Amino acid sequence: MLKFIVRRLLIMIPQLILLSIIIFLLAKSMPGDALTGQMAANPNLDPQAFEELREKLGLNDPWYEQYVRWVGNLIQGDLGISYIHSVKTSELIGNRMANTFLLGLLTLILTYLIAVPLGIIAGRYPNSWMDKLIVGYNFVSYAIPLFVFALLMLFLFGYTLDWVPTGGSVDVQVESGTFDWYLSKLHHLILPALSGALLSTVGTIQYLRSEIIDTKLKDFVKTARAKGTSERKVYTRHIFRNSLLPVAAFLGYDIVFILGGSIFVERIFNYPGLGQLFVTSIMQRDYSVVNVLVMLFGFLSILGTLLSDIILSIVDPRIRID
């Protein structure tokens, strides 16, 4: 097991190097540079001063020199400075990371709270009206784009019914650290998290339903029934337990999916997280922030895949064999 994990960690190194090169080249191929946005926002400033600043920051150097300098700073923990916000990129990202983490965690919890019961019901009672209803929900949630669904949820529950806030992460009038402050945080989180969760259940429901239907036909289940084991015990001790283990292996992939979806959700709900910062930084050509955020998202995606592989190797040891 340890050998498998070490081998997978070593595979991550060339993946991260390749990812960093692609990210850097894509950022450099975008029109303008890190100072273009500031020049557009301040047309009366001296172009010569910007040119001197560009030379000072090394933006006129060849791309490979800039890349080596960027990677060297990353390794030393220096993520650079945001040209737009004039603060350290690490500080800017750190302030938003907690919000994105809370949103992702609540989305993940809601996803499994919704998907697991629905998958079990659909698998235990296939072709029933409940199964058809759940499968219909699955088709709809698979077909509808996240940004369209999030806009509908915002319009219905935010603007029409006025049940939840339409933006921000907390009420600024509430004192920080109090019970009301935490309640306000949850109140601001619930709609973005629910919007993401309702569309993230597709894979878990479908996979769990298929696993339960297949497991019901396995020999050990038939043997348990032949021994006179009650139907409740057959399901709880044999079918559900064996069907849920492979689903747990998709935890890492679910994290990756939710992480990607947070970019749309945070933007639509004006939630101050990393996704909103990412979109804003692209529009303002704040390359130092964009590069670090893409690298961070990529690293977390690779880490999520690694987590899934490790869980899969525990569930099914055969995949560890070369």
TrEMBL record:
Keyword Membrane appears in the UniProt entry: yes
Record's GO cellular component terms: plasma membrane
Biological process per Gene Ontology, one example term: transmembrane transport
Entry-linked InterPro entries: BPD_transp_1_N, MetI-like, MetI-like_sf
Spans traversing the lipid bilayer: 9-27, 101-122, 134-159, 189-208, 244-269, 289-315
Domain of life per record: Bacteria
Domain ABC transmembrane type-1: 97-308
Compartment(s) of residence: Cell membrane
Keyword list, A-Z: Cell membrane, Membrane, Transmembrane, Transmembrane helix, Transport
Chief location category: membrane
Pfam families linked: BPD_transp_1, BPD_transp_1_N
Keyword Repressor part of the UniProt annotation: no
Entry similarity comment: Belongs to the binding-protein-dependent transport system permease family.
Protein name: ABC transporter permease
Organism: Fervidibacillus albus
